[in-house]
Amino acid sequence: MKTIERHISLTEEEKEKLLKVVVTGKPSEILYANILLMSDKGFTPKRISEALSTTKQTVNTVKQRYFQEGAEKCLIRKNTGKAPYPAKITGEVEAKVVALACMQAPQGKSRWTLQLLADKTVELNILDSISYESVNTILKKHNLSLT
Question: Residue 138: is its pLDDT beyond 90?
Answer without folding.
Answer: yes
